[in-house]
TrEMBL record:
Residue ranges constituting the Response regulatory domain according to the UniProt record: 8-125
Sites of 4-aspartylphosphate modification: 60
Protein name: Response regulator
Single GO molecular function: DNA binding
Domain HTH luxR-type intervals: 153-218
CDD domains: LuxR_C_like, REC_NarL-like
Gene3D superfamilies recorded: 3.40.50.2300
Source species, domain of life: Bacteria
Signal sequence residues: none
An annotated GO BP: phosphorelay signal transduction system
SMART domains: HTH_LUXR, REC
Keywords annotated in UniProt: DNA-binding, Phosphoprotein
Amino acid sequence: MTEVAAKTVFLVDDHALFRAGVRTELDSITDEVRVVGEAGSVADAVTGIVRTRPQVVLLDVHMPDGGGAEVLRRVRPELPDVVFLALSVSDAAEDVIAVIRAGARGYVTKTISSKELVRAITRVADGDAVFSPRLAGFVLDAFADRPGSAPISDPELDLLTPRERDVLRLLARGYAYKEIASELFISVKTVETHVSSVLRKTQLSNRYELSRWASDRRLV
């Protein structure tokens, strides 16, 4: 029987510990995928992807120097056959829509299991589109352009930085500051700083009000 070649994968995420964890998991559980490189910034990602020419790029949505959509804009014209699969802590409608419009073939959240991630990688490499269950509706709504579609922009929401949105989303789900810090690979002090900034920008006064504000904007 002919052996099927492993799908080659390039990891893009600004957290080195997360990249190391994903790489270790993928290397340990399967021969179906093979990690050929990784990067923690937009510039390094573009250079690395062009150099290694992987079949699939696992792409973080939010990075300090531009994010996943910027990587897509720079790489796709030169390497149109490379497939991008977003892998993010964010499941916000505007993040999903932005990266799909930029050219990603799928979008899964970091709650995905290792085996499910391998399946997602092989599926997008073979031409399928893959989304975490609740995210597909955002894309269908946005591209159908019908009443009730997922919001692409919100003036109040646009005041928040991507990291502030991540913190707010987890806060609204009931995460404690320590749990948010662990999930986002930041310090508790940084979480507190982001929460204070969100309260100031939204002119709200407590966690309960923030949770309702986030829910109204489909962030939760």
